Amino acid sequence: MDNADLERLSISPGKLSPKFHPNTTEYSVTLGSDVSQIKVDPLTSDSGASYSISGSGGGKTVSLKEGEVTPVKVEVTAEDGSTIKNYFIHVTRLSASDASLSELKLSIGLLSPNFASNITSYSTFVPFSCSSVEITPAVADKKTAVKVNGTESKEPTALRYGDTVVEVEVTSPDTTNKRTYLLVVSRLKLPRPIEFSDEKQQLRFQCPVCLGILYRPKSIKDSDPKHVFCKCCIDELTRTSKVDPLDGSPLADIWRTDEYELDKELSSQQVFCVYKHWGCGVEVKLCDLGSHVLQCDFRPAAVEKGGQLVPTKDLEEKSKEASKGCTDCNRPVRSSELEEHKTFMCTSKHTNTGVRHKSEVRAWEKRLHVETNEKSADKLAKTAEEQINECFKVLPQHGNAGHYDGEISPLRYLERAAEWLATAIKLSPKKADLHFQLGQVLEEQHYVQDVYGIKPEKSSDDEEMDFNMISKESSKEDDIQAICELRGAGRNAPLALQLKAIDEEYHYLLDQGQSDRADYVQKLYGWKSKQATQNKTAQLASNEEEPLGKAYLKYLDALVNGADNHLYNLHVGRMLLLQSKPEEAVSRLQVAVGLKPTSLEARFYLGLALGQQKDGPGKRKEEAVKYLSEGIEHLLNQMTVDANDPSKENKKWQQITLSSNNLSRPDNVQWLQGCSVLSNVCKQMTTPPSGVMSRVNALHTAAMLASHVLTHLVARGDTYHQVEWVLYETHFTLLQMKLDDAKSKGNQKNGEISSFCENLSALLNCSVIPPGKQILELKEKTCQQAVLLQSCNSCALYRLGDAQLSLYDNDDPTSANAKQTLEEAELSYRASIELEGSPSFGGEMPAKITDQRWFKEQKAKKEAEKKAAAAGGTPQKTASSPAGKAASPAGRGGNQAGRGSSTPTRGKPAVGGRGSSPSTRGGAAAAKASSGVARGKTSPTKPSGTAGRGGGTAGRSAARGGSNITTNKPSAHKSGACSPTKQPASSKHSTQTKPVAQSPVTRSTPAKPATPNLTTEQKPSGPPNKPSYNARLGLARVLMRKGGDSISEAHTLYEEVISMAPSVHDAYIELADSLIKTDPMKAVDTYSVYPFKEPLTFDDAYIYGEMVRLLMKNEKYDDPRLGPSMISLGKIMGLTVLEKYVEALDKTFKYSKLLKEVYAGVHGKSVDDSDLQQFFKFKCWV
């Protein structure tokens, strides 16, 4: 009687969704645009029940409106007349003018974003081995026409090497409308260097940054010639500085251009198999390389027992006699390595495997102990593991350095883990594994700070515990600065000057018989000179107060309690390499390999240590090559597997374990260094063994991996700097090899080499490595080479000036050497300006260059080689790059003053008695070095985006040494980009020998490249040199440092720069700075003409801040520029920066109107806003 269910519900045409069920009351159906009505056919479960269909007029047919959803209600009334149940059908009749898809399916890959008919742009990643993809578009109306890339064929779409653009064109049934859906299918990058069959094509399609084949190429709009990069490379270079990396020109708002046609062209090029060094001789099209790599019979595979890599086709055969047991230690050893195992590593023959170290509880370790009732060391270690896992959950991702999810810092989780492990050690002090785990956690603390930018959180207890150490460090620094002032160097002087002042004080005290005080000053010298340590990581790993140094001690503690564990020996050896002690590391790593001969990591590190020794691997070069090659191939194999699984693309950089548990990874700097060391050692071999890549490929692998890592590191800490150094040192080594090859062929004026050299000199201007001897000399040598190759290229000349000025800024400005360097920088800039409008190729070397010291040295060397050759001798060959020698950032470079500082040697007479003062640094600009640094001014040794004034903008391009911008025509003034101020003192070096500052044995200054012919008979040719603001800006900086009568010319040059490139912040700032003391209002006038653009940047905030400061300082409260400047400054930096100015104005009781306008402007509101009026009343401004 009360049954109101339907037994059946059907429609015609169409099918209900979901399928009918008596208890389901909501349905939908979509019909074509040509369907004008729908028939609904219900059947009640109870024959006594009745139904009605809305919109049917009492029948079963319902009319439909085109392009609309028609709701159809089927009301069922039970036999009792009171029970009613409604079923709803939502009928969509498509519009004949609708041109949309209902679905878009791919045979592989996931759409991003998820499909919706109103979204027309999508992207997806597919494995590198995927050469085609099936794209299946679906439409609701069968009369809708669909074409994929212009065809109705359902054939799979062939994919290019990088990006493939797929256009899905949809035409409405009435043909009045069309809509195009755009899909970009990106194949993951094959992580191996690729070699083209045609070398010329290789150079054409090579990225100037990673030196690999252009992957997903992007060009910079309007660049001439076109500047093309891999997408990830240009993204990283422009992350904080919006300038063209190759010419320094400011980037437009929309500057990136997709090079899909270029991608298509390079995909059709013939390339060798990436396993060519394993014996594969196949040549395929680049777009087919991925599928071949996956099936290649020569791809390396690991033998299960021995671990050695062999071609897949030989795996079964090689597995039969993979390893044998050593007759002395019974450990399984590869059959081919029994002899070297017994000679160097067998623990039965080499029993002296212990270490001179005493395991003890140190003061810092005692501070880690926590009170607990738990008496089980294993349970405490388990609790520590839980804390470590929590740390990984909150680590920041790329682009979010220093920030983390949740309230607890990842560093704090690691600190808790360290506390639990230290407490566990207290319970079980002889348990080696606990010491080892604590060492791992302490090491991870270092990397969380360095790689992720997480700063330690100091509690009041921590501050109290560290007070003595902090006070001691602060006291030392204060004493040093006092000595510097006493000796005339001034506070915050460059490091070379500080060391020189300490040295003078030391000698003075000795002469006065104050030996106790002299001993203290000698300790100050040693402490300060550590700041010049070439490798910051080496310094941290040796410092017992740093997490890395503490970790080393705990690894030693573990080794003392478990000498027969290969892991403990491996990690102690690895830390010795971090400390730049390869000779000591070799003995420890030999033990590790002896204890576990199949350990890939131990073998790799032993090869690295052998190659990084001062005299190289010696007779063990084959052994070193084998170990290094296997480690690198293993890493590349793992990366290749990951690149064939798009689901891992976003996860592979998400850390899930301690760094020390996964040594074979691309962001392990030592693994990158291994590529350079392998290349260096291979140089000593006639032909590399099968399975070992060539020198060139090893270097290209280093560059590829380094650039890959740079694009994924979260923070720009020491690890970032080390990886960047690997990249640039690799470039330099390849440049040397090209020059040597060209020299042997008598083709030294090679256009390809010139382009390579020019690109490297430009990229060095983008470096974020802190300026120091190594990076600056590398830059100078590269720029010198560029000038030798392109003697009439004005761009190469002003970049040489940049390099020379950078060296001056990081040297002792009072030394004769520094003064000469400054003179040469001036000559380089003037030569650059004089050549504007002349052909950029060929022609004679400018006289202003031939007069320079470095050129004369090159010429003398060339003549000496000729004489030696004529006399039957052998000309001295150019030394190779120290690529194999522990590549760490040059910016933390050596303990010697740059370019021959005049710092005295201990034991020699002091320069002067107490109070004597060296000559001033030359000119007003030089005297302002420290203040300039505080204000964050740019330097040619650092990218403009990293300067202290904040975010990167186009205006900062001057610091990059860049482009031929001709915004406005320059004046006829023949005058040239470099540093506006001195660099921070931390980049300085000293040549003093006592007290001795430790110098890493594994680094040396990059050798000079092979010298091309220093004369040229080529006729001037090529496009004319365009006028550039860079040379004028650099020349102005030189003249400001010289001071005196040069200041006037410098001002003229700054004005020219402003005329030519109005958006360059540095020209306004430096010109205004030089005017502040003599004419502060003229400085304000200079700032006020800057063409500000929305959105305002931190660079803009600096200019606004200076305008406000100068106007307020000079009490120009009525100046019409004060209010707008305060408003703009407040919008960028917040009201806090205006507080002292507001207070000053408020005290005058005259400028309430101005203050109201400022507050309202900062908040973007009207002065009459009701909320602000209440605030104004509170402040008594109304």
Automatic annotation (TrEMBL):
Pfam families with a match to the protein in the record: Cadherin-like
Region (Disordered): 856-1030
InterPro entries membership: Cadherin-like_domain (IPR025883), RNF_E3_ubiq-protein_ligase (IPR051438), TPR-like_helical_dom_sf (IPR011990), Znf_RING/FYVE/PHD (IPR013083)
GO MF term list: ubiquitin protein ligase activity
Stretches with biased composition (Polar residues): 978-1005
Bias (Basic and acidic residues) ranges: 856-868
GO annotation, biological process: protein polyubiquitination; ubiquitin-dependent protein catabolic process
Tree of life domain: Eukaryota
Biased composition, class Low complexity, residue ranges: 879-890, 916-937
Residues annotated as domain Cadherin-like beta-sandwich-like: 8-93, 102-187
Protein name as catalogued: Cadherin-like beta-sandwich-like domain-containing protein
Naturally occurring in which organism (per UniProt): Stylophora pistillata (Smooth cauliflower coral)
